[in-house]
Amino acid sequence: MTLTVKDFDTCAKPDWCPGCGNFGIQAALKQALANLGIEPHKTVLVAGIGCGSKMAHWVDVYGLHTLHGRSLPPATAVKFANPELTVVVAGGDGDGYGIGMGHFIHTMRRNVDMTYLVQNNMVYGLTKGQTTPTSAKGFKTPSTPFGSIEEPLNPIALALAMGATYVARGFSGDVMHLTKLIEGAIKHKGFALIDIFQPCVTFNKINTYAYFMQNTYKLEDEKGYDAGDWEKAMAKARQTDKLPIGLFFKTERPTYEEQDPGRTGESLVDADISDIDVRPLMEKFM
Amino acid sequence: MTLTVKDFDTCAKPDWCPGCGNFGIQAALKQALANLGIEPHKTVLVAGIGCGSKMAHWVDVYGLHTLHGRSLPPATAVKFANPELTVVVAGGDGDGYGIGMGHFIHTMRRNVDMTYLVQNNMVYGLTKGQTTPTSAKGFKTPSTPFGSIEEPLNPIALALAMGATYVARGFSGDVMHLTKLIEGAIKHKGFALIDIFQPCVTFNKINTYAYFMQNTYKLEDEKGYDAGDWEKAMAKARQTDKLPIGLFFKTERPTYEEQDPGRTGESLVDADISDIDVRPLMEKFM
Amino acid sequence: MQTNDLTWMIGGEAGFGIQSAGHIFAMCGIRAGLHVFGNAEYPSLIRGGHNSDVIRLSEKEVHIHKEKLDLLLAMNKETLDMHLNEIVEGGGFIYDAEAFKEEVAAPKGVTGFNVPLKKIALESGKGDITRNTVGIGASLGLLDYDMTILNDILTHMFAKKGEEVVANNIAAAKAGYDFVKKNYGDAFGFKLKPLNKKIDRMLITANDAICMGALKAGCKFVAEYPMTPSSSILHFMAAHAKDYGVIVKHTEDEIAAMNMVVGAGFTGLRAMTGTSGGGFSLMVEALGMAGMLEVPLVCVNVQRPGPSTGLPTRTEQGDLLFALHASQGEFPRIVIAPGSFEENFYLAFDAFNLAEKFQLPVIILSDKHMAESVKSTEMFDTKGMKVERGKLLSQEQIDELRAKSEAALKKLKQETPADRGFNGASAEGNYLSVDNNFLRYKIEEDGVSPRTIPGMKGGIYRAATDEHDESGDLTETEENRNLMVEKRAKKLEGALRELPAPVLYGDKDAEVTFVAWGSPVGALKEVIEILAAEGVKANLLQITYMCPFHTKEVGEILRGCKRTIGVEMNGEGQLCSLIAEKTGYFVNDKILKYSGRQFTAHELKDRTMALINKKS
Amino acid sequence: MQTNDLTWMIGGEAGFGIQSAGHIFAMCGIRAGLHVFGNAEYPSLIRGGHNSDVIRLSEKEVHIHKEKLDLLLAMNKETLDMHLNEIVEGGGFIYDAEAFKEEVAAPKGVTGFNVPLKKIALESGKGDITRNTVGIGASLGLLDYDMTILNDILTHMFAKKGEEVVANNIAAAKAGYDFVKKNYGDAFGFKLKPLNKKIDRMLITANDAICMGALKAGCKFVAEYPMTPSSSILHFMAAHAKDYGVIVKHTEDEIAAMNMVVGAGFTGLRAMTGTSGGGFSLMVEALGMAGMLEVPLVCVNVQRPGPSTGLPTRTEQGDLLFALHASQGEFPRIVIAPGSFEENFYLAFDAFNLAEKFQLPVIILSDKHMAESVKSTEMFDTKGMKVERGKLLSQEQIDELRAKSEAALKKLKQETPADRGFNGASAEGNYLSVDNNFLRYKIEEDGVSPRTIPGMKGGIYRAATDEHDESGDLTETEENRNLMVEKRAKKLEGALRELPAPVLYGDKDAEVTFVAWGSPVGALKEVIEILAAEGVKANLLQITYMCPFHTKEVGEILRGCKRTIGVEMNGEGQLCSLIAEKTGYFVNDKILKYSGRQFTAHELKDRTMALINKKS
Ligand SMILES: Cc1ncc(C[n+]2csc(CCOP(=O)(O)OP(=O)(O)O)c2C)c(N)n1
Ligand SMILES: Cc1ncc(C[n+]2csc(CCOP(=O)(O)OP(=O)(O)O)c2C)c(N)n1
Ligand code: SF4
Ligand code: SF4
Ligand SMILES: [Mg+2]
Ligand SMILES: [Mg+2]
Known about the structure:
The complex is a heterotetramer, with 2 copies of chain A (286 residues) and 2 copies of chain C (616 residues). Chain A has 286 residues and is of the alpha/beta class. Chain A has helices spanning 22-36, 72-81, 93-99, 101-110, 155-161, 175-187, 209-215, 230-237, 256-259, 279-283; strands at 43-47, 62-65, 86-92, 114-120, 166-171, 191-197, 216-218, 243-250.
């Protein structure tokens, strides 16, 4: 089906701060959905709670705006219930890598077919600027006025260690590039992580547009980089002098939902439940 | 101070199944504490909930037997409150790598000085034999009667990816070896993970004593293995044909508690709180 | 000679198949056409602690074990230490002097039957593992039961393990049977006599009943994390996942379980989770999400003694007020407490209908005593059970509503600034938002809105845990907030109208009225009979629906009673508190128990009589 | 001319310093010796939404904003759209016709003061960023305030940002002041006149007060996860961590926060967490742990409207019943609801004492309205405030108790099998276990046991969330279970005896008695005065202690009242439910509000009068 970005527009306009990196992510997601020709009612955009998560209201598809840190379990269930749906999840770094860490790890293990966009601004936006798990050491915030003393976590390395099957990083400042990554992620059959550098112009004065422009480069631009090589991907993930963006790693393995023994057909949503016969079951207990 | 294992004995005897791997872990921990000469009242053994966690009652030190999956946050607080205490944490694989995953990741990031023993029997013992995050794919249990369809997680690789500073694996069947690992972990200044292969003789008929004997080898026995080399450690962590035990990786970085701006002296427990002056504080608001 | 009225116990070490032996014995009752009740008590450890399983058989319906035993099968010495004095006069016990390495003196009036269980097992059963079966054979020998039925049960039970195992067990049982016949003849004063008529009863736990009810209701999604005593719900559903086409997920924790159930409900599946108090504690945040998103779901809390980890394998009713108020803020929920095994089936089925009709979470409160006891239960009558999905729309219905709304929408688009959602209620008859999406939270008379699910064309909306307008988009105005709070609250009014009000069980004119909920209800029904035999008329007010609450009816009934006694397995009398809150009525007395064990009928009788005698 | 009685509002876009401008204006009141109340309303987004801050100044104490404004400083057009009609007759508004690109028609009786805020800011303040300061200068010009005080405040406020910023702001303020003086003279009918006497009042939020109370109480550990409107507790404590030697941890989630607080309490620190409802939901499992382990801790729940994410930046009192019943099973907790800014300080201090004396979790229920409003508050009187640590033992006390127990222990060792812990209560006077450890859960008269902490020699014990014996080791016997349940429950009896019972505020003989808790209490005190002026005698029953509850006193007081009206910011009337549950008394009427905004005094008056008129 031929679709354009307009098909994903909403009347309500985002209330993000002017210049917020989330605008670029929103644009890229709408563009990717349009490019892939996925009809709006066949996509569910699941989100946690945070500035970035509000995006669920500003892309015109089914939306499920859940709890802080809890986007992945409901998203998993959506996919399990109806694998015909395209499931995209969006949430902040605090949401996904902080409070939501347990679900993040276990969802990767399961290789559920979904695309997870982490709006990584290295700060808690919606609660006004506290430190997150990806904030730099020394980051001064209202909750760490003397500077954060935790080692920032490396989501790409983590995803690789967990055996994730599509591991990428984007930058909200490069919408075209990000669009391609999202397209690839949605097409990928399995769990796809896109960690997205997203400048928070209001609360993060360190990881700014300028910072990311200066410190990132594209993996595609590196000759011979092979996203099928796990070791290389891990080495890239651990690079700190410059930060690569692009597709780090991609592999194929069966998704959870295609192996589920409870699955009878394509979608359980259509199952006829009007008169299920439990007599054989009862007889087992006699 | 000269201590013996007897100093850590309790009158109550463990109620683990005869042959349970936890006996070996209990023996190793007591031996390590005795060897290090740490007086019983200066150690706190924190545990989650599960068969393994019950160990908190059978080593004669201060014990804190908490909630399922929640051993690490209270343990962190114990150390923060009184860094003079030796903090050892014990819990199952379900407890630590399943429900407790979020805390596990974040505690590693903080490099809190404590020793975390994971009694990894690849099964839920206390609730009678369900699958855990480390169970093999295909593992048939009451909750996965058609076989588990999740990829088991690799705790060693995960800890390495998270920048843990002491990463080891032991086997409850080799108490001497495990004792050394525990000693090293307690002496290590920072967060030490020891993932311990612990046969559950009742519910895990796959990962048995025989299985571990056949499939493990010691890193110490490998010539030139260097626990200071992260890449090598990661390669070893990812080895699947044989399973290395021993110290994978060790490095030094400052602990969280020594960097805490709120720390005035050694232990806040001894602070005099009888008459704190808040007048200067009030004056700030006038 | 006492026929077909027996309390039998097997006791032994944890990990040695005490419960499956109990199950075999219970099946002997079922196949004999008798009523059966079986209660397992065990500590929270895997092996070595003391386990016991009491099976009561009778020609009348039984709801609870008795405190006195007629026949005790002691698999170890500890069993005798703990239970010898519980045997009735005329009763007996089977033990293995050789294995225990000591003789045992029988109390007065009680007969000890020394049976070399171990030796027989090794010889006839080809291994110590058949020792329990020898004991069952011996028990049935004393009871003069028909061994062909037992053989049948054993064949069925061990079929999966192969023919050899079956043969060994049959041989072991026979040897035990023969041994007592030979050595003790027909001396024992209790007998079991299979009834002639064939009766179709199941031997099930309340957890089994809930699962059957859920499957009958079309539950297609179960996410759960193991926790005693709810794990068997997970196990049951997992075992039947393939046959019934159900997605059953053992999740990483209870937070994920409840969040997944919300996701599945949102996507249109009937979804359920089960847990016990500790897991429920982790679910409360997502419970509130279901309330706000108006997602139907069913959550079973099988209670066990708290606080915190408490006594994981024992029983209590300590979570009532918690379940009623769990999660921040105010939202409607339905809380149901089945009081019998049958009710667990029928009310679980209803729970799914209620959840969908009123678009809210339904909590079922059970407890360990029901959840893990077995009871002979008539086959459920599923005739007339109707799956009702409330205002869930089909694609055709969406198309129709959309067509009808066109005109209204046109007008609205002129009136409403293009960049804002609605604030407050849209025009009657309009189901479309400014985005041309569906007004999923349309305010209707009864507070329930027509519902679409993802994948449906023209049904798009955003479900949000923030306060939202009819379309699901965010707005913070006071006007909208008030409307939405009132809309949600209104749903309970409709639910209350639909739920049957409680009625008195037993004699209207009783001297004593028990007020109870959940598993003590069964025991109380027996108590009422026992009291009647002693000349005390008693009746029972069982409360099944905790929320919404039948304030008017309960208040009227209780105010018309002579003497009311609240009976609960907790320390605070939580139902009594709820009744006081709603009706202002305080029960006259409370009989509470919080030791982690269920009431027995005689204990209740004694405590009731003590209250009567004290007061009058 | 109305002097020193003013309601001023600044409104503008989120992200443009509306709140800090409000703060400056409020400080002008403080330095003038006036009473101040300031309430900020803002939506849950970072920029662009509408923010407003209302500051009320008066010579009398004020608890709440008024709905009518005397002077409105509109920083954008939307402010006028929303608030122009809220201005009293005789009042005025400041706007910037040039920047808004339109003239504004003033309502009848209201004066519009057109001030080129932007232009002045650019010219005199060296940048648009000083626009708010120009507005404040203009406001104070109309009000004829003493500019030297403002300069002082600006100097103090902007000191950290450097001299240039200070100078720019002072210049901006002056230019604004001069502009109105020149163009509008003394025409405005409201004035501010600094009082002569110096008065030591602080301008604080209730969150500030709680933090000060906690620091005074020796709180040494705070673990918290940010959540509006509790985050400022975390921020306050973090900012003062160094000065006061407090470990302040921003954790990965609320589960970790509460679990850490339990760990810190166990280790002997006074520990606290703060959160709002959603975070509290995640804490309930560990709350129960504290109950079972008998670990003292303080948890502040700053309520906001639910359910679920709800309205994050608004206010409500929707978590009362949840807080009372949160977590599975039954255990004692103390739930306190401060009703004023001062009470937040004193009761937070008390909370730490109560937590340690009764070895249990203490929950403080606050709400957004108090937590983020500012109020002029007398300096707290800390004289006589005594830190009481209850039965926390020193090393010497342990040694002593151990010595005394020796004999008892010897005897016990002979009686008790060496491989088992105690079951039930040990001999009186003995504090030693069979392991020669400490009986941390020793059963004493009042349910409170002497307490040791890790590191103390001879104090070893195991704290367990499973049911345990006096030593902390696991046991499942009924006898022990009963003793422990009763022991824990008994602690609340002691606590109740210690807590002051509620009394009526105001005229004993009132026609109307308000029943309230938390932040509406302040508004009601003003309402009582307003009603008195209209000839209606009203008084107030404030409930501060929700658990344990003064059942007897509350019941007696209410039954003696003529007409009772429950006033709560929620939809269900949760305090009214609690009162009914405890006393059987139902209030005559309820005034409830659940729009997410606080009552104003006049709204309450009107609703009260409507009830009176309807009924009589
Ligand atoms: C359980 C719970 N705790 C805390 C909050 C408050 N909260 C809302 S958003 C947020 C953090 C936002 O940071 P992030 O996830 O990085 O998203 P961002 O705003 O930066 O996009 C927090 C702590 C909440 N809503 N729920
Ligand atoms: C919140 C919560 N959920 C579930 C449980 C039930 N539970 C107790 S132990 C356990 C799992 C035990 O497995 P593991 O952690 O691997 O320890 P093991 O018994 O194997 O040593 C579970 C699920 C619980 N106590 N609390
Ligand atoms: S606070 Fe940061 S993340 Fe949030 S909308 Fe503003 S710029 Fe974006
Ligand atoms: S069940 Fe397994 S882990 Fe638990 S005690 Fe027995 S052998 Fe050990
Ligand atoms: Mg962020
Ligand atoms: Mg395990």
